[in-house]
Write a structure and sequence with these properties.
Length: about 325
């Protein structure tokens, strides 16, 4: 396991993993990924920027068992808001993200030998709230107590749009997935995470053997746009090898190309706000490896170079 992790991390260290955003976008990312601390007396919020120097992965297991959990954590790209992942670059090339569709329900159906619906998270009456339904379904799989499911759905930010319809959602999911209903409230989530982490490891190692760097985000992977087919094929092959069937994958055809479109600098952004973010990065001894997209160098422009990814200072 450690040898495999070392191979994967060496590939990441030898790549130039960057982010092409404007100053305004960087500020937005910092706020959205911030570790927030509300000071009641001041009514203010302190933030900590993304630590772009975090390039090494680790596997996190649970309950003192090497068969529960095991997912990869540690890469700075993992905490980026999903809408900003399309601006990630590898060796200054555009990237694309490919993910398994409805991974855990698909895995459960494969274990049961049953056919999974095209979209396990699609429910009548909730067509515009798929992400909330997905979060609710995962809560049901992870929980061991139905009574706690409703409270968890109410408190989960991703379930905000269905917060007051939790009972209807739970009933609809049970009705849609009657053939795997015993997995609901079974506490199977960590065991499923172990299985998907093993798939992720195999995918990363397979790509590494071909000289392809992939950035894992649990059930999805980011690669250079020109490596899309290799990633797509590898994900399907690994799922077939492990579960006896090919899992569905999806990607945004245009997402990777968007990262190379010029983004006009918003002149309304004040220097004070920009200075605040740059100071935060400097004070935390982090590498400001975001890339500006203007034609002319900006005074805050910092380009990530290969030496920086190897942990050297400049």
């Amino acid at each position: 396991m450690q040898c495999n992790l070392r191979v994967i991390n060496e590939g990441l260290l030898n790549a130039c993993i960057g982010l092409k955003v404007t100053d305004k976008m960087l500020i937005d990312i910092c706020w959205k990924t911030a570790q927030k601390k509300v000071v009641k007396e001041m009514k203010s919020r302190r933030t900590k920027p993304v630590n772009f120097s975090k390039l090494q992965l680790r596997r996190v297991f649970n309950n003192s068992s090497f068969e529960q959990g095991g997912r990869f954590y540690g890469g700075w790209w993992q905490i980026l808001p999903k809408s900003y992942r399309k601006y990630i670059t590898i060796d200054d090339e555009a990237t694309v993200e490919v993910d398994f569709t409805g991974l855990h329900p698909t895995m459960i159906y494969a274990i049961k030998g049953a056919e999974c619906p095209d979209d396990p998270y699609e429910l009548p009456g909730f067509t515009q709230r798929r992400e909330a339904i997905k979060a609710a379904a995962n809560i049901m799989i992870n929980s061991k107590d139905l009574g706690k499911v409703y409270g968890a759905i109410f408190e989960d930010e991703k379930c905000e749009s269905i917060r007051y319809e939790a009972k209807s959602v739970v009933a609809a999911l049970k009705k849609k997935h009657t053939s795997i209903s015993e997995f609901f409230c079974s506490g199977s989530g960590l065991k499923l995470q172990y299985e998907d982490s093993q798939m992720a490891e195999e995918i990363l190692l397979s790509l590494s053997g071909k000289g392809i760097v992939a950035l894992p985000i649990h059930d999805s992977f980011i690669v250079k746009l020109r490596h899309l087919k290799e990633l797509d094929d590898t994900m399907r092959e690994v799922s077939t090898r492990r579960f006896g069937r090919e899992f569905k994958v999806k990607h945004d055809d245009e997402a990777g190309l968007l990262s190379f479109k010029l983004v006009a600098c918003d002149s309304s952004e004040s220097d004070t706000e920009i200075d605040e973010v740059i100071d935060l990065i400097s004070n935390e001894n982090m590498l400001g490896i975001y890339l500006r997209l203007e034609d002319e160098p900006h005074r805050y422009y910092q380009e990530q170079v290969r030496q920086m990814t190897r942990g050297l200072t400049v």
